[in-house]
Description:
This protein has 306 residues and is an all-beta fold.
Amino acid sequence: MVEALGRKRWIVVGAVVVTGFVGGCATESTGRVEDSVPTVPTVRGAAGVPGPLKIAFADGWQSVFVMNPDGSGVTRIATGSDPSFALDGSRIVVAGAGISTMDPDGGNITRVADGGYGPTFAPDGRTIAFARGGAIYLVDSTGENLRRLTDIPDPATVGPDLVSANSPSFARDGSAIVFVRAGIIWLMAGDGTGQRELLRDQFYNSGPKFTADGADIVFTSNRGGRDQSEIYTMKRDGTDIRALTTDGVGGLSLSPDGRRILYTRMSRTRSNAEVWEMNVDGSNPHRLTDPNLVAQSPSMGGTGPS
C-alpha cells in the first residue's frame, strides 16, 4: 500500500519502505548535490513573479528538487519535505523544521509557521493550508494571521491517529478544502466552516485533490483488493467512484491546467519511488524521473504548455 500517513516521509508498497535518495550527499549551505545528480542553471526571478512550468519533488531524506516537465534538469534546491508549487510557479512551500516558502531556485526563503507538514498554497497564492498537531491550519503566505480550521484531537478520549486531520487541498476557486481523517475524506469551506464527511467506507482513502473544474476529486484508496493503493476519481459529492490505475501509487497532484495527474510509483526493477504522470482520465501513464533516483510527492506549477 502506498500511503502518506501523518508526519512520515515514506513511500510504502506492500512491506517495502523507501526513505532515501540514491546517490551523493547534499550540502545545505550551498544547495549542491555532491557528484551524483546532474544540475542545470535555474531561472531566478523576483518573488511572486510567475515562473516557467516546473515540477518539484522530495527524496525522503529532507532534500527538495525541481525539474522540467519532461523530467530533465533535475536540481536540488533546498532542505525540506512535502514540496508544493503555487499554481503560477512563483513560489514553493515545503515542510521540515517548519513551513517555509521559497523561490523555485530555493532562494528568498520565508518561514511562515513553526512545525507542520503537507503544506499547500491556495489558488491565489495568498494563503497556505497545512497540518500540525492533528489539525488543519491556514496562514498567510507572509507568515501572518495563523488560524486553526479543525479541532485538535484529544488522545485522552480518542487515539490521535483516529481523528487527526491531514492532507488539505483547495478547490481551484478557493471555495472549498478537502482533507482526510483516518481514511475518511472530508470537505469544508475555504474558511473551515461546514465540515462534513464526503467519503466514509471500509477502505483507506487519502490524498484527495480537486480537478481543475471542481466537479471531481482524485484520490488514492486501497479499495482495489491488491494490498496497495491505486488512484481513483469520484464526483464532488462522493459518488461515481472509478479506478484510474491498477499499480500501487501515492502522493498525487494535478498539473496547473488540470490535464495531467502526477504521482509516486514504485520502480518495477528497484526498491525506488519514482515520479510518474498520466492524463487526467488515466491514459498514457509514463515515468518522468531517472530510476536511480528516489523521487516522491511531486507538484507542478508555472505557466506555459503542459
